Amino acid sequence: MTRSRSSAARPAVRLLVSLLFLGLLAAPAHAHADPDETRGVVPAHYYQMTFVGDVALSPAGDRVAFTVTTVSEEENGRNRRIWLVEVEEGRPVGEPIPLTDPTRDSSSPRWSPDGRLLSFQSRRDGESSTWFLRTDGPGGEAFRIPGVEAAPIWSPDGAWIAYVTRPESEERQGPRPGWIAPDAITETADAERFDGRVITHSRYKSDGTLPLLPHPDAQPRSQLFVVEASGGEARQITDVAFDVGGPVWSPDGRRIVFTGNELAHTDPYSRLSDLYMVARDGGEVRRLTPGEGVHSAPAFAPDGSHLAFLRTREPADPTELVVVPVRADGTPGDVEEVVADSRELALGAPRFTPDGDRIRFETAHHGNRHIYEITLGGAGGSGSTSPAAAPVAVTRGDRQLQNVSESHDGAWMAYVSTDAVQPGEVFVAAGDGSGEVRLTDFNDAWMDGLILNAPERITWTVGDGTEVEGWVIAPVEADGARPGPASRPMVLKIHGGPHAMYGNTFFQTFHVLSAAGFYVFYPNPRGSSGYGHDFMYSTRGEWGLVDEEDFLTGVDAVLERYPEIDPARLGVGGGSYGGYATNWLTARSDRFAAAVTSRSIVSLETLHGTSDALGTLEFEFFGTPWEERERYRAASPWSYVENVTAPTLIIHSEYDHRTPMQDGEMWFRALDILGVPVEFVRYPRSSHGLSRTGEPWLLVDRLTRLRSWFVHWLEPEGGPAVDG
Hints:
By secondary structure, the protein is an alpha+beta fold. Helix content is 15%, strand content 30%. Among the domains are: 26-46 and 452-714, 3-Layer(aba) Sandwich (Rossmann fold); 50-144 and 400-424, no CATH class.
């Protein structure tokens, strides 16, 4: 099945492109194909892709603002602008138009409650600043509202704006604040000349930032500010010893509830989070939750009578959706109702519908991402909040929805929708999910005439009876003929996480490999999200040791269904946990003839000591490496490295602090000594997110190298494919 042009039914179509277009953009489908016969996606198509996001539907549901990100090959960068499209009764009125300066990056559109102002973030005066546009009349220049220094959060009546930022500090600790820890014991000979670091706090680095972070005590904590919506002097209404996050107004505008972790700066490994409340005029900050577990995503019922939030009692417990009554003083009542938990369906941030009868949230489930809702027993919080039924899907289909935004009355909603053969575009639909209409078509031009094979779903059962799900994309064949037995190679792609999920969303990498002549198999093994709580945590303490079976039996299931795949020409690749699993499988199995491991993990013990993901491995492996030494070593690819024979391409980023460079170096050194064909690519100025957010040229280069490595080792004639 190929991609389609329709947003409703998607018939299989194959459109041919002109020879001129082919000459500019196409690459060989596989090493022995005629370049003029190629119809698929190549790495350089990334430069033509457009990415939409940050959807904001106006309160009246008559305008949709959103961001549009384009890629510049010449400037090796991206530009993000705010666009707007008018809608009437869920139908577009005219074409989408850009609102913001094409030379300035703009993001995060937000509407005022009356829909007259649209705010956005933009670097227009040297720093990221908050700007506003009037939308109730003729356009004009963007302007500032005095006193608003960060993304605005309007009170329900529109009279006040709250925001979170760090207060200005008059204290400076020498020329490099925070480079020398304020609690350091050692003395510095000359603070003006010393340009090293003295570190006493574990949170001293962050992925994507090469310079180390200053000591947390060297900068103020983020606090909550309030200012009149018309502008004026902002008033700081909190002064707490931790960072304020996620503020929401009470419906009457008298109070603000927010989240925070009191232990974050004294214990960087702390996973606690509580809810707090403060009056709009400031005063006492009251903690609303008990100081145990993780509490997040507060949301008020429309009449203010109830508060919903998410709670995880212990790190490995299911997350609960809790609803509590609200007393006259704004504090929670004694009776709470757990209206849902994440045993079967993960819970996203909750929000009440305007009538107060239901709670909605977005979640990933079996490869898709949709809006779900729970019907409560009492309307508007006036009665019992016990759910009348389990969560039900509001939107459907083999696709993923993101950036959902709803009108004030709930009659309309807008969002980004993507599937396996269509990059994200903006859609609008009625509040119940019906009458969906596509508003944008930014990616249609570059995709016109290309063949993108839709994936086929496959399931299989592992030894303990668990069903595992995956997808297979067939190669783009030059002549359209079905290949003969054992005539095509296949690449197994493994996602990161491990608690992430593949599914029905657009992955350029998969289509690049398909266009190069490969079958592409991408599974969701045990440990993936989207299949319930127990499935997601079934690999805890046993990375690799559990999901190894899922990968290998999945390969067997694919080979049985597709006899045209040659079992002697299997490749494997992935990034982050996918890189870990790639290393693991090539060290524990001889099934694979080539591998590409990106931002990978080699030794869990070294990862524990170098990653900025503090506390992750203690949770996953029930303790530190010295407390659970055998667990760490049994689950480390390094323990089996001498078994590797698969030619391996290693890709790593210089600024990666999530899975730092030393693991790539260790794997390269070992394979080199073992005589395994190996290449080591180190990308400058790049973080853990190179494959998604890296410099465009480096991202395209990575795709090109990945494709050429697999073509060289898995195609009969060998030799890398080269873009036309």
